[in-house]
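2024-03-11 09:14:02 INFO worker-7 job=invfold-0412 stage=load source=structure_tokens
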């Protein structure tokens, strides 16, 4: 429909533009997703202690293990994307992980619908 077409197009055009120009006021305002996976819980504990580099290692392990659920892998992809955008200022790398997050979420929803 026209609504989806317009906003999908606007999103593609302006996402990169705004991503590279908007900076958080402080690290305390960064919101990472939390999940029920044991490793995701451990990663959120590390984030609360300010150990973001160690949390990144856990998210990368969860994401790279294809035996993990779409849910755990998608949350990890989102968090890696947040880390890359906010901490590393690697906006292109972040965009890749955000796209993977979107794809994994779509697969998870499709599996749920088929179930």
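2024-03-11 09:14:09 INFO worker-7 stage=emit residues=115
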């Amino acid at each position: 429909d026209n609504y989806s077409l317009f906003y999908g197009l606007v999103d593609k055009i302006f996402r990169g533009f705004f991503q590279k120009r908007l900076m958080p006021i402080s690290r305390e305002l960064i919101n990472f997703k939390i999940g029920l996976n044991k490793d995701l819980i451990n990663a959120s504990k590390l984030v609360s202690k300010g150990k973001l580099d160690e949390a990144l290692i856990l998210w990368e392990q969860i994401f790279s293990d294809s035996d993990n659920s779409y849910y755990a892998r998608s949350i990890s992809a989102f968090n890696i994307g947040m880390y890359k955008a906010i901490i590393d200022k690697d906006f292109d790398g972040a965009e890749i992980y955000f796209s993977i997050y979107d794809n994994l979420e779509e697969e998870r929803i499709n599996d749920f619908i088929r179930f």
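2024-03-11 09:14:09 INFO worker-7 stage=report msg="Residues 1-7, 21-26 have pLDDT under 50 and may be disordered."
2024-03-11 09:14:10 INFO worker-7 job finished
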